[in-house]
């Protein structure tokens, strides 16, 4: 069963890139004390993720912040070095924090993992977006494969405005 509105996030270790290199961070370090918009992609450099999903958040970053997002996270079952290269190519700057769920622990803990072995990708995250307040899920939008509808930045912004 996947995570629901009102649930706490799974307590796992993730990885981010800092000025001093890659660093392990606990879920609480990323989400506690903040209103966070997080979106998950099945994989960096994949067509929908690169062509639609990530760009939507880059384009709407300032609007999301104006609507109350204190942090914006992009989560993927990729290593942090792949995510950093992807961020560099898309020029995300410091506004979107790339979060590596390299072992899919977070995706599994959320109940939002998927088997992409048929595409040679192994276990991946489903495509989703969520609004998290101090570690508690306030809203969750999960997309069907190859769609960016519920998890796109425009949908998140629409919902975020209603939560203020």
Structure overview:
- It comes from Ectothiorhodosinus mongolicus.
- Its EC number is 1.11.1.27.
- Keywords: Antioxidant, Oxidoreductase, Peroxidase, Redox-active center.
- Residues 3-164 form the Thioredoxin domain.
- With 164 residues, the protein is an alpha/beta fold.
- The protein has a single domain, classed as Glutaredoxin.
- 32% of the residues lie in helices and 29% in strands.
- The chain has helices spanning 27-31, 47-66, 80-90, 105-110, 153-163, and strands at 13-18, 21-26, 35-41, 71-76, 97-100, 113-115, 123-125, 128-133, 136-142.
- The strands form three sheets. A five-stranded mixed beta sheet has the order 5-4-3-8-9.
- Helix 2 links the parallel strand 3 and strand 4 (71-76).
- Helix 2 packs parallel to helix 5 (153-163).
- The longest helix is centred in the middle third of the chain and has 20 residues, at 47-66.
- The chain is globular.
- The mean pLDDT is 89.
Draw up the topology in text.
Elements: E1 13-18, E2 21-26, H1 27-31, E3 35-41, H2 47-66, E4 71-76, H3 80-90, E5 97-100, H4 105-110, E6 113-115, E7 123-125, E8 128-133, E9 136-142, H5 153-163
Parallel strand pairs: 3-4, 4-5
Antiparallel strand pairs: 1-2, 3-8, 6-7, 8-9
Helix pairs in contact: 2-5
Q: Would you identify the CATH H-level superfamily?
A: Glutaredoxin
Number of domains: 1
Strand content: 25-35%
Q: Which percent bin holds the helix content?
A: 25-40%
Question: The CATH topology is what?
Answer: Glutaredoxin
In the sheet with the most strands, the strands line up as 5-4-3-8-9
Overall pLDDT: 89
Q: Work out the number of β strands.
A: 9
- Figure out the total of helices: 5
| Overall SS class | alpha/beta
| The top level CATH class name | Alpha Beta
Shape descriptor reads globular
What is Rg? 14 Å
User: What is the makeup of the main sheet?
Assistant: 5 strands, mixed
What is the end-to-end distance?
A: 28 Å
GO molecular function: thioredoxin peroxidase activity
Enzyme class: oxidoreductase
Function: Thiol-specific peroxidase that catalyzes the reduction of hydrogen peroxide and organic hydroperoxides to water and alcohols, respectively. Plays a role in cell protection against oxidative stress by detoxifying peroxides.
EC number: 1.11.1.27
């Amino acid at each position: 069963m996947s995570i629901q509105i009102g649930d706490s996030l799974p307590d796992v270790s993730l990885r981010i890139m800092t000025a001093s290199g890659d660093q392990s961070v606990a879920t609480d370090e990323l989400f506690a004390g903040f209103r966070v918009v997080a979106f998950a992609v099945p994989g960096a450099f994949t067509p929908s993720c690169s062509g639609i999903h990530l760009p939507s958040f880059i384009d709407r970053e300032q609007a999301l912040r104006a609507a109350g997002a204190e942090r914006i996270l992009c989560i993927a079952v990729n290593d942090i070095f792949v995510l950093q290269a992807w961020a560099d190519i898309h020029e995300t700057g410091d506004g979107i924090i790339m979060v590596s769920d390299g072992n899919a622990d977070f995706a599994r803990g959320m109940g939002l993992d998927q088997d992409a072995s048929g595409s040679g990708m192994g276990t991946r995250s489903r495509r989703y977006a969520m609004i998290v307040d101090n570690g508690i899920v306030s809203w969750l939008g999960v997309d069907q494969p190859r769609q960016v509808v519920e998890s796109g930045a425009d949908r998140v912004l629409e919902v975020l405005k209603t939560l203020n």
